Amino acid sequence: MAAVLAVALLGYGAYRIFGQRGEAPTGAIVTTADKTAFEKELAVPGPLGEMTLGDKSAPVTVYEYASMTCTHCAEFAKDTFPEVKKNFVDTGKVYYVFREFPFDPVATAAFMLARCAGPERYFGFIEVLFRSQEQWAFVETPMEALKKLARQGGFSDEKFDACMKDQAVFDHVKTVAQRAAQQFGVRSTPTFFVNGEKVEGAIPYKDFEEILNKKLSGEKGEEAPAPSSGPATPAPGQ
Of 45, 141, 180, 198, which sees the most CB atoms within 10 A? Predict the structure, then answer.
């Protein structure tokens, strides 16, 4: 109960900071960018470091901002990402960076659980959580359902409770998401930055493939605005 209360309070803080859940319409390409100050600022990691896949020297870098309770994010994770990973990440063409952008306390708790699992198991937890989203995210007792999944993943109840009260992990998730909202204009999930080009929504693989191939062929778009040097614009609900 103490752990549930702690994550509820922490998650409520995130909910106030990042606003209510906003899932992007499918396939909205917002802007493009060259390798500029915008991309350099985008590359700054959160306090606990990045969770990445692929070769860091790959010609294309993709940042994905997702929420674990976002149905469009789960759709992308199940239907599109496996093909992206097989054809672009595993072949050395794309460096993939996954970042946390929770819109509610339950999503915050899920991200904290994946972080507590450690770097080697992080993406395995993310995959399982997305594939089983309906079994824990939208039930009457989501924290109990999340704890059950954690047990299946090797967490003791004590380790799960400690994770839910880990201030450093929560602060990381909060910092990454708040910075995304305030400096990069992330307002919905999933949101991607492909070599600086902002793409919103769980777009089908063929459309994502086209975007990646254009970047690989060296096609350039309009330059994205540089990150704000003045006071950041508050995220919805802040």
Answer: 180
193 three-state secondary structure:
strand
| Among 201, 166, 181, residue whose Cα is nearest residue 11 | 166
Residue type, 145: A
pLDDT tops 80 at residue 16 = no
Q: What are φ and ψ of residue 103, in 5° steps?
A: -110, 0
pLDDT of residue 116: 98
Q: What are phi and psi of 61, to 5 degrees?
A: -115, 130
Interatomic CA distance for residues 13 and 75, integer angstroms: 27
Joined together, the tokens standing for residue 168 give: 């450093």
* pLDDT for the residue 20: 44
Does domain 2-216 fall under CATH 3.40.30.10? My reply is: yes
Confidence of residue 23 (pLDDT cuts 50, 70, 90): low
Tokens linked to 2:
């103490």
Radius of gyration of the chain (CA): 17
Cα separations (Å) of 69 from 97, 129, 186, 226? 19, 9, 16, 30
